[in-house]
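Why does residue order matter? Because the sequence determines the fold. Keep that principle in mind as you read this record.
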Amino acid sequence: MKAIEPTITGIFPTPIYITQLGRKFSDKENKFIDKNKKNINVNEGNVASKNSYILNSKELINIKKKLNKVIKDYFDKVINTTNSIEPYITQSWINYTEKNQYHHKHSHANSLVSGILYLNADIKTDKIFFFKPGYDLFKPEIKNFNVWNSSTWFFPVDTGKIILFPSSLIHEVQYKQGIDTRVSLSFNVFFKGSIGVEIELTKLIL
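Structure:
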């Protein structure tokens, strides 16, 4: 009798949505991005624009339109609800990370989905790291890392890349290598409308 090969499958995966802006940044957009570096808040490890509603600026109107399309696609494909909801960007800001700077490990509270658009990044050296929720009860020494036994995972990033993920997912940027400034536009997303079912007493209007 032929041996039956075991099957390993995954359930309840964490969605990491990755796409591209699909065009170069305009001169007007680049000038605005550079200008905001002069008005910053100091983070743990790097700096960010004081303007935390940066996508409301007229200079970034076309970028915001693209991001709204990407967000809608995420909601359609990942959340895929019959409820009448409309996602919208709450806050948005620009991060500037120089050589040997970093962005501390964190998640985004009061948000459902978070995203990053890379305004300047080098795919050879720039990465974003994500961390598995919870903790490992047992921690054997790993021979070969894979999606099942890893507690962290990274994705290389380059200029124009867009990444969306659940806001509760912990992530970080390790120490910046290379000579260029890594520049990223981060944003949080919530939704308005109604969810749940009235007859089941789960109706919530937002």
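The domain at 17-133+141-205 is CATH 2.60.120.620 (Jelly Rolls).
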